[in-house]
Amino acid sequence: MGPDNSQLGIMDTRDAQALAEEQNLDLVEVAPTARPPVCRIMDYGKYKFDQAKKSREAKAKQHRVKVKEVKMKLKISQHDHDFKIRHAIQFLKEGNKVKFRIIFRGRELSRPERGRQLIDQIIEELKEYSVIDSRPNHAGREMVMVLAPKPGLREKVKAEAKKAREQAAAAAERVVEAADETASDGSAEAKASAAKSTARVPKSIMAVGLDRARQQRDQDKEEVVSPDAEKKDEDS
């Protein structure tokens, strides 16, 4: 086979090697078990580089699923419960599984139904983000359950993050436009319009937009030559 995958037919090994050397390429055996063996003329160094690059790109796109653990006591305060649920939601959004461990202590061992009630509550609270990967299992002093992210949850979170970034960029542009309008027209109506357009913009985004607007105004002032300066130039 030639460099462009064209069929060169059956030929002697020496002739094939000479043909490859004429093109400053390599003769590589791609199907040694075939009869006759199949060889291809190629740049072997470039071929190895391309294969390594594809492997790296495929590896970068892969998401390694981790199992995050969340422990809860049977007697847990509402604040701690909500805190751990928020962490579990974050783990699920990142594409990880979550293992819940419900710990029984002392006389609580005689009330396994309370552990089951807590497990059912967790499942209900996380039903929007997860599916049951491993059913609740009561062994010894623990009740264990594993939840997995809902199919498509990670992609949905990425799409929402992208949309939020685009909205932030658009908001920053509105801030710049409003600041320019305020600078060019100092009337109360213009100031009210600028305040209305930036009312829902986070302060951090507003600060960035205003800085950009100030820099643009300073640059415009430097480019404008005053009438007195022009008159002095004419006299000289």
Summarize the model shown.
The protein has 236 residues and is an alpha+beta fold.
Report what the structure shows.
With 236 residues, the protein is of the alpha+beta class. The protein folds into 3 domains: 13-61, Translation initiation factor 3 (IF-3), N-terminal domain (Ubiquitin-like (UB roll)); 67-150, Translation Initiation Factor IF3 (2-Layer Sandwich), CATH 3.30.110.10; 154-224. The chain has helices at residues 13-22, 44-61, 78-93, 112-125, 153-184, 188-197, 203-223, 227-235, and strands at residues 26-31, 38-42, 67-73, 97-103, 130-139, 142-149. Helix 5 (153-184) crosses helix 7. The longest helix is centred in the last third of the chain and has 32 residues, at 153-184.
Task: Provide the low-confidence segments as ranges.
Answer: none
Structural class: alpha+beta
Query: Helical proportion?
Result: 55-70%
CATH homologous superfamily classification of the largest domain: Translation initiation factor 3 (IF-3), C-terminal domain
Which helices and strands occur, and which strands form pairs?
Blueprint: H1 13-22, E1 26-31, E2 38-42, H2 44-61, E3 67-73, H3 78-93, E4 97-103, H4 112-125, E5 130-139, E6 142-149, H5 153-184, H6 188-197, H7 203-223, H8 227-235
Parallel strand pairs: 3-4
Antiparallel strand pairs: 1-2, 4-6, 5-6
Can you give keywords for this protein?
236 residues; Ubiquitin-like (UB roll); Translation Initiation Factor IF3; 3 domains; four-stranded mixed beta sheet; two-stranded antiparallel ribbon; 8 helices; 55% helix; flat
